[in-house]
Each structure stands twice: as C-alpha cells, then as structure tokens.
Design a protein that fits this description.
Blueprint: H1 5-8, H2 10-13, E1 31-33, H3 35-40, E2 45-50, H4 60-73, E3 78-82, H5 86-98, E4 101-107, H6 113-121, E5 125-129, H7 133-145, E6 150-151, H8 157-163, H9 165-174, E7 180-184, H10 189-203, E8 212-218, H11 223-226, H12 248-257, E9 261-265, H13 267-281, H14 287-301, E10 310-315, H15 328-331, H16 342-350
Parallel strand pairs: 2-10, 3-4, 3-6, 4-5, 7-8, 7-10, 8-9
Antiparallel strand pairs: 1-2
Bound molecules: ligand AN7.
Ligand AN7 binds next to helix 5, helix 10 and helix 14.
Length: about 350
C-alpha cells in the first residue's frame, strides 16, 4: 500500500520509524505520455505529471504533509496561510486530519470556487483580504512571527522539502534521465523544490544528468520574466496571480544552474492549451497548470527542443477546481432540450444519414 510521500522517501526527509506522520496518502501521481500533443509538435517525447490526482487535487499536498507533520511534532495547535486557493485547500485538509485549527487568508473574490468550497468543507476559518495574494502573504508572515500560529506557506522550509518528492517520483517513473522539466511559476516554490529534488537524486547517483528547468508565468503576472515586481498582477490563471514571488531567488538560481529559462505565456495560450490537454489527451487541468504545456508549445515552435530528450510537464492542479473557465451553460445547450429526434442528431454528427 502507498502510504504517502514521507513514508516513500523517508531517507531523504530524515523521518524515523515510529515518528507520527500526518498524511493523506498524497503523491504517487501518474506520469502520463502526451502522445497526441507530442506528435502535433513534430515528434516530442512529452509526459504529463498529473498532480491534480493528489488527495486535495493539487501538488500542494506534497509540502503540506511535511509542514503539518512538523507543526504537530513541535506542539503547534494552529496553522495559517495566504493562498490563491490550492494551498488553503491543502492546509485545511491536513489541519482537519491532525486536529489543528486552520486560518486561511485569500484575495477577495479572486480564487476558484472549487478551492474555496474545499477550504470551507474541511473546516478552515476563511478570512478574505482586501488586496491580492502578495498583500495576504505579508499579513500572515507578520502574524506567524508572533509565534502563536505556524505559517504553512512555502516560506516554511518543510513545504519545499516535501515538494521535492515530485522530482523523485518523476525520476523513478522514467527510470532514467529527464531532458527538460516544464512547470508553472507563481510564488516560485515548486520550481525551486523540483530543482532541489533533482539535485538530491543526482548526488545520490540515481540520475546521471540534471534536467533543464523551464518555468512559465502568466503574461499579466510575470515578475521573474520581466525582473520587476508586479503591483497589480492579473491573469485568468488565478493560482499564479502573484506579483512578488517568495522564492524568487531560488527560482532564478534553478533556471541559471540548469541553463534553462523562465518565460511567459498569455491567458489566451493558457486557455487554448487547457482545451487541447482535455480534448487531445483526456487530461483536465486548471488554467495555471496548462501554463507549463503552453510554454512547451511556444518553445517547440521556435525549435528549442532536442527531440531525443524527454520533456516532463508538471500539471499542478485538477481542472475540476475551476469549472468557471469552461462555457458549461453554452456548450450544454447546443442542441436545446430534446424529447425526440435524438438518434437522428447523433447519426448526423457521425456523418451518416443511414438510420435503421
Ligand atoms: C495549480 O495556492 O500559490 O510557483 O496559494 O495552485 O510553487 O507558487 C498556488 C500556486 C502552480 C504555482 N499551479 O506554484 C497557492 C498558490 C497551481 C497552483 C502554482 C500554484 P508555485
């Protein structure tokens, strides 16, 4: 039985037998070949690390199991985070499991409904903040410094430690070297964690070469790409609507040490790619997650990739978190409500007039 990332990689996490672990059996997510899109791009070896299948539907669970395990060991009774949605959903779930109080500060009106629903049902106390994620993060940092609540944003080093497991899994699943690792960038924690994870595996002799790191921000929230703070970040991909990333320096180090890049994609490219992933590969991801694949498509058009090398795109969150970006009302009523003539409609769509 899979018992979560801490049990699976305990040598790397320094967790000993008999220690109390708070886990929702996160991790072990599938690495799915994206053969149809790979072919479309002229024969690329493309894989999707589908993080939407973690227990709360995003990669955040990998870091949260570590952060909450340590918080409990240190005697903490409450955790706090600022969040564009997924961190709050994950924090709320692990707090529920551990019996901790959980406070989440969210940008007012700017998080996806599915994520808010999760935080509510898991029992967190939700405090909407007048301002964006960066404002909310500033506030929780100040409160956590007074010591009564444990911060579980990625400024908490245990978060990034746990998130390294994504890199370990990708290496184990491919049983070999990874050419490129493409990943969305918001607060820039995950790209930093993957890079650290690959380095752990490299030092342990489990991989022979380090991948090239490719990070992608949304055009309206691209502080690292443009090397300036965005005071008013704006993008349809609310998860990465962040103007002043906490792990800025770690991310640029990952980029430079791996001879990679951090680039930006437009909201239009993000939404097109989200549709492409669903309609060509059967993978429904949230908009922020599509940024990694949108970025790979953009680079492939410039002839960036060496074709014999594998490309892994981390798709970070489940599409069900944010159904508002799909035109559900319109698409479900293309045919109107029918009582008869249904078979004829189907046969017409199949391109055959032959009814029996
Ligand atoms: C689906 O939940 O920042 O660069 O507060 O939810 O490590 O921040 C979420 C970020 C990518 C960016 N994809 O990762 C939060 C939050 C999804 C995300 C990112 C997020 P980082």
């Amino acid at each position: 039985m899979w018992n979560g990332i801490i049990a699976a990689y305990k040598d790397f996490f320094g967790v000993k037998e008999g220690e109390n672990i708070v886990t929702l059996n996160e991790g072990n997510t599938p690495l799915i070949p994206a053969e149809n899109i790979g072919k479309m791009l002229g024969g690329l070896k493309l894989y999707l690390k589908y993080e939407g299948l973690n227990t709360t539907g995003s990669f955040k669970d990998r870091g949260m199991t570590m952060a909450v395990t340590k918080a409990v060991q240190e005697g903490s009774k409450a955790i706090i985070c600022a969040s564009t949605g997924n961190t709050s959903a994950s924090a709320a779930a692990y707090a529920a499991k551990a019996g901790l109080k959980c406070f989440v500060l969210i940008p007012n009106n700017k998080i996806a409904m599915g994520k808010l629903a999760q935080a509510i049902i898991y029992g967190a106390e939700i405090i909407p903040v007048e301002g964006n994620f960066d404002d909310a993060l500033r506030i929780v940092k100040e409160i956590a410094e007074e010591g009564r609540v444990t911060l579980v944003n990625s400024l908490n080093p245990n978060r990034l430690l746990g998130q390294r497991s994504g890199a370990y899994e990708v290496c184990d699943q491919l049983e070999g070297d990874i050419g490129y690792l493409a990943i969305p960038v918001g607060n820039a924690g995950n790209i930093s964690a993957y890079w650290a994870g690959f380095n752990d595996y490299y030092k342990a002799g489990k991989i022979k070469a380090l991948p090239t790191m490719l990070g992608f921000q949304a055009e309206g929230a691209a502080p690292i790409v443009e090397d300036r703070v965005f005071q008013e970040p704006e993008t349809i991909a609310t998860a990465i609507r962040i103007g002043n990333p906490a792990s800025w320096e770690k991310a640029t180090a990952a980029r430079d040490e791996s001879k990679g890049l951090i680039d930006k994609v437009t909201d239009e490219e993000i939404l097109e790619t989200q549709k492409l992933l669903a309609s060509k590969e059967g993978i429904f991801v949230e908009p922020a997650s599509a940024a990694s694949v949108a970025g790979v498509i953009k680079l492939s058009r410039k002839g960036y990739f060496q074709k014999d090398k594998t490309i892994v795109c981390v798709v970070t969150g489940n599409g069900l978190k944010d159904p508002s970006v799909v035109e559900v009302e319109k698409e479900s009523k293309v045919y109107g409500v029918k009582t008869e003539g249904i078979k004829e409609l189907i046969y017409k769509s199949l391109g055959s007039e032959e009814n029996d």
